[in-house]
Amino acid sequence: RMAEEEGTGELPFSLRPFKIEDADDVMAWKGDPRVAAFCRWDAYTSRDEAVAFIQDFAIPHEWCRAICVAGRPVGCISVTIGKDHARCRGLLKYELAHSCWGKGVATSAVRLAVPAVFREFPGLERVEATVVPENKPSIRVLEKCGFLREGILRRYVVGKGRLLDLVMFSVLSEEIQP
């Protein structure tokens, strides 16, 4: 497990593993419908959901970090490593409190996380991310971080009751500065 890593950006931030004590901070962004709008999950309505997220997803996950500003979690970034024949790739996901949008925090977090994941998982050759085409800010984050737009996955998933297209982005290990 990676220790806390410091990043740069408009706001001082760091990435660190989640703790159960983060539940109130997690609830602050996961309870916001603006944050949930482009996510698979609906906005949380109880602190118990935040505790379950930390306990059942974040802590046991192979690579999941809290994005912290001034030491407090304001978001989450994770990379899920593929299994068996897909072990050469990881799926990047991130979410960020509305109060931090447009301040360089997500871009800085991705720039810090991706090289760390390539270092920690030597067999990893590719990190990919999928984004709904309407989520222009997230698309800009990936482009600024050197991800290549590979194409549209048409009617790829069902999200909140409707079929969604996804834009596929990727970056290869040799394309990332350590």
Automatic annotation (TrEMBL):
Highest rank taxon of the organism = Eukaryota
PROSITE patterns noted in UniProt: GNAT
- Which InterPro entries does the protein's record reference? Acyl_CoA_acyltransferase, GNAT_dom
Q: Which GO molecular function, any one, fits this protein according to its record?
A: acyltransferase activity, transferring groups other than amino-acyl groups
Domain named N-acetyltransferase: residues? 13-173
Any matching Pfam family: Acetyltransf_3
**Entry's PANTHER family?**
ACYL-COA N-ACYLTRANSFERASES (NAT) SUPERFAMILY PROTEIN
What is the protein named? N-acetyltransferase domain-containing protein
Q: What is the lineage of its organism?
A: Eukaryota, Viridiplantae, Streptophyta, Embryophyta, Tracheophyta
